[in-house]
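Entry: Fructose-bisphosphate aldolase
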Amino acid sequence: MTLASPESYAHMLDQARRGAYAYPAINVTSTQTLNAALQGFADAQSDGIIQVSVGGASYLSGQRLQDRVAGSIAFARFAAELISHYKGITIALHTDHCAPQYLDEWVRPLLAYEREQVEHGEAPLFQSHMWDGSTLPLERNLTIARELLAQSRAAHTVLELEVGAVGGEEDGQSAQINEKLYSSPADGMKVIDALGLGEQGRYMVAFTFGNVHGAYKPGVVKLRPELLREIQTTTAQAIRQGELAQAPKQGEKSQAPKPNEPAAGRALAGAPDDKPFLLVFHGGSGSPPAEIAQAVSYGVVKMNVDTDTQYAFTRGVAGHMFRDYDKVLKIDGEVGEKSAYDPRSWGREAEDSMAARVVLACQELGSAGRALR
């Protein structure tokens, strides 16, 4: 297993789009959940993405510190060391769901840190970052995305953005389940108009098609994966007809790629004619496998998996505690059993449970057994 470089990450995403499969992007909050995710990818022989949210980054720094930049840097360095000891698959690191109020204290400092790394001939800590401007008017969302894309390009990273509002709750951010759950083909053309076709920097887009964060009973949410196809085909047709020609904005210089610039910053050459966007599926927990497969066939290359893996990890802990309650607790004056309340005992069960859920995600998304060696 190796940590993805800017070039290999671009190759991963392109191969997934061409091959009609996607990578699970597993949220982690600790070294244990990181190990579980790595174990799952290794078991599935799948490349993959491991990510931290704004709350996860803060939690990783410890309750006393609660510094999301420090937590992110420490996580990335720890993860890179572990990843280097696995063989056969490639893992990318990503920061997830940076809302507007966290930009100046999280993602912008990380991009500045990574730009310095690149200027000193090093690879960036993370391979991609997500800007979540879904709560803002689309024009404002894309204005900030354009600025971040320039910074991402300089840092040799990929930008992810969200267009539309994913319902439910994610890391303290909530959105209603309403008509904003559905993006439109017009939104796709606005994205291209603002961010180009990759010549300004590589990016991924999470358009919304009824998806929500969290777990809901059947019938609460209506997914419309076909909306992704409409966005892709409408935008592709406009590109072919020259309706979205990308001249530089007034007062700007051309953004032609530099000769030595990594593939992550170049135009999306080789993209299928009917799939101009690299798509991301947010809020996929509990989605039927058929709808997941349908979304992937329309160009989804990354699907966030958090709620289901959180449950799998905690279920492993709960199973241990309920089964061995009289050993993990000192009941009626007894002394319990050290081997049962040793955190490593229930930790291993939790990691195995979460790893199995990661394997299932790889199988459902079609990335299992397709590692790019």
